[in-house]
Design goal:
Layout lengths: L1 H26 L6 H8 L3 H23 L2 H9 L2 H11 L2 E2 L2 H16 L13 H20 L3 H29 L7 H23 L4 H22 L8 H30 L19 E2 L7
Antiparallel strand pairs: 1-2
Helix pairs in contact: 1-2, 1-3, 1-4, 1-5, 1-11, 4-10, 4-11, 5-11, 6-11, 7-8, 7-10, 8-9, 8-10, 10-11
Length: about 300
């Protein structure tokens, strides 16, 4: 379980850095229409690099979902910002504020508390419950996507991604019993469709959201909620053996998700930061988000 959760954390860091690079590339399109900007992005090495990191992170997350409880994997995925933001800030020569550093520490404490006192996983599947959960989350996602607002499409992406992870978990359980035949199950189609729909919704949200804070926060929150519900309802997972333990784990998940907007703001500011070696663009807003470009040694 610990290995799976660590893989979830690492995969999320890769995915978030990939999102950051994609957002930087998409914002270069300026005021162009979304279709024109996406066409430009397809020829942009930064966007392509972001896609490569994102899909590498997604493949790693598949392994994490197979190894660890689904109810916790998405919480660790949300906590990936605690790794990606410091790494990206170092890469672009920026520092994080005390509040953002405290958010990183709070996420680390919340994630460290989550595996404590968990009962052994049962690795069982309730197909009817999973069908109901994925159908409900998909309907909610479609309703959000129909609103055609950046925040709504980000929420839709979270619902789709959470349902896709639940389907991946179902495939992984079938793999242990039926081998390659499990890949031919309907859950593979659900996983692929949910991932693709989530990808489209989140890319649309990133293009339209000026700062990407709302999109990143909502996507992570909804994916965690859907995965938590599916894990508890369809896979026999538990957040603890008694009420205090369950409340403690829920509080830890809430702490992690509560820190996501702070670090999402930092990541959005990193997306607007100039490339290393270039002077800052006039009118940049990254200092309002608490990120300051490093100066000469004396001032530092």
């Amino acid at each position: 379980m610990i290995a799976g959760l660590l893989l979830a954390l690492g995969s999320a860091a890769l995915i978030n850095i990939g999102f950051l690079l994609q957002h930087r590339a998409l914002r270069r399109g300026g005021g162009s229409g979304s279709t024109v900007r996406l066409r430009r992005a397809l020829r942009e090495p930064v966007w392509l690099a972001g896609q490569g990191l994102g899909w590498l992170g997604f493949l790693t997350q598949i392994v994490a979902v197979a190894l660890a409880p689904l109810s916790l994997v998405q919480a660790f995925a949300a906590g990936g910002l605690a790794l990606s933001v410091p790494i990206a800030a170092s890469r672009f020569g920026l520092t994080i504020t005390r509040g953002q550093a405290l958010s990183v520490l709070a996420i680390a404490a919340g994630l460290a508390a989550l595996p404590l006192g968990l009962p052994a996983a049962h690795d069982r599947l309730a197909p009817v419950a999973l069908i109901a959960a994925t159908a409900l989350s998909s309907l909610v996602a479609v309703a959000f996507a129909a609103a055609r607002r950046p925040w709504a499409r980000a929420a839709a992406a979270g619902c789709f991604y959470g349902a896709a992870d639940a389907a991946i978990k179902a495939v992984s359980l079938g793999w242990g019993r039926h081998g390659l035949d499990a890949v031919l199950s309907p859950w593979t189609i659900v996983a692929a469709a949910g991932t693709f729909a989530g990808f489209l919704c989140f890319q649309s949200a990133l293009q339209a959201d000026e700062r990407a804070v709302t999109s990143i926060s909502l996507m992570n929150a909804l994916a965690a909620v859907v995965a938590l519900a599916c894990g508890l309802a369809a896979f026999g997972e538990s957040l603890g053996s008694d009420a205090p333990m369950r409340l403690g784990h829920l509080a830890a998940i809430a702490l992690v998700l509560g820190c996501v907007p702070v670090l999402a703001a930092a990541q959005a500011a990193l997306a607007e930061a100039p490339a290393p070696g270039l002077p800052p663009e006039r009118g940049t807003e990254r200092e309002r988000d608490g990120l300051h470009q490093r100066t000469e040694a004396g001032r530092a």
